[in-house]
């Protein structure tokens, strides 16, 4: 086993332990998610350092991941109550908080960065896949950040207590932030120009469609009743084509 894999294993163990310790000390879901998201950055840097591809591309990838991580940490630390991670606190037992890092950190250390194993060795000049990567990443960031900010701002207004957010990004899709996150991981797959790079966006989709989305849909139905049912009839679940619906 090469040294880079040992370093990645060490990062995985370290951030898993930090996530478990923080969950135990705080009794909250915030910090396991913080350490989970952050762990992808040091792994990406390690892969960039050991990569043999074009230097500009390796450090462009590091920059894209760093911006993504910084934005997610801001969201988790400042807008936490408007995130799905905050809802999760009411959906699982406190004893299960310790399990979160055991799932999150390995995913962020090994599955989501999988495209970078190939991308960091690409030696070809800037081309179509690089352009598509930047476009996809920009659109994903727009949807992810825009939707999260809109929800946070909506909840800051006391007059909106108990009301359902259904305009702006949330009028295009019932989960526009998840759609944006998917586009970001799709951009990581595009920069790899490698079939196995698709593992990252596929894992992202599976996590949303078999875990996060069903939980959020159920909770929203319980909270909003018929208002939620009307919203579902007029707004698509994931793909943001709500603007094209009559």
Can you walk me through this structure?
This protein is mainly alpha-helical and 246 residues long. It has one domain: Up-down Bundle (Four Helix Bundle (Hemerythrin (Met), subunit A)). The chain is built from 12 helices and no strands. Helix 10 packs antiparallel against helix 11. The protein is globular and about 55 Å long.
Q: Key terms for this structure?
A:
single chain; 246 residues; 12 helices; mainly alpha
- The level of helicity is over 70%
- State the CATH topology: Four Helix Bundle (Hemerythrin (Met), subunit A)
| Estimated share of beta-strand residues | under 5%
Write down the secondary-structure element order.
Answer: HHHHHHHHHHHH
Class of secondary structure makeup: mainly alpha
Average of per-residue pLDDT values: 93
What is the domain total for the residues?
A: 1
**Second rung of CATH, namely the architecture:** Up-down Bundle
Give me the Rg, rounded.
19 Å
């Amino acid at each position: 086993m090469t040294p880079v894999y040992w370093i990645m294993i060490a990062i995985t163990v370290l951030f898993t332990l930090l996530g478990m310790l923080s969950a135990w000390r705080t009794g909250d879901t915030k910090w396991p998610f913080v350490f989970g998201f952050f762990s992808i950055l040091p792994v990406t840097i390690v892969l960039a350092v050991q990569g043999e591809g074009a230097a500009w591309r390796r450090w462009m990838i590091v920059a894209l991941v760093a911006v993504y991580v910084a934005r997610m940490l801001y969201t988790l630390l400042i807008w936490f109550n408007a995130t799905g991670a905050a809802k999760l606190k009411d959906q699982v037992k406190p004893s299960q908080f310790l399990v979160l890092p055991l799932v999150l950190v390995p995913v962020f250390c090994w599955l989501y960065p999988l495209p970078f194993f190939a991308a960091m060795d690409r030696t070809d000049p800037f081309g179509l896949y690089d352009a598509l990567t930047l476009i996809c990443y920009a659109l994903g960031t727009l949807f992810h950040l825009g939707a999260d900010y809109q929800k946070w701002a909506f909840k800051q207004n006391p007059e909106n207590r108990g009301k359902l957010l259904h305009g702006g990004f949330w009028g295009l899709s019932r989960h526009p932030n998840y759609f944006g996150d998917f586009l970001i991981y799709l951009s990581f797959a595009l920069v790899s120009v490698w079939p196995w790079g698709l593992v990252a966006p596929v894992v992202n989709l599976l996590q949303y469609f078999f875990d996060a989305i069903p939980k959020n849909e159920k909770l929203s139905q319980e909270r909003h009743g018929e208002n939620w049912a009307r919203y579902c009839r007029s707004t698509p679940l994931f793909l943001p084509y709500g603007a094209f619906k009559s």
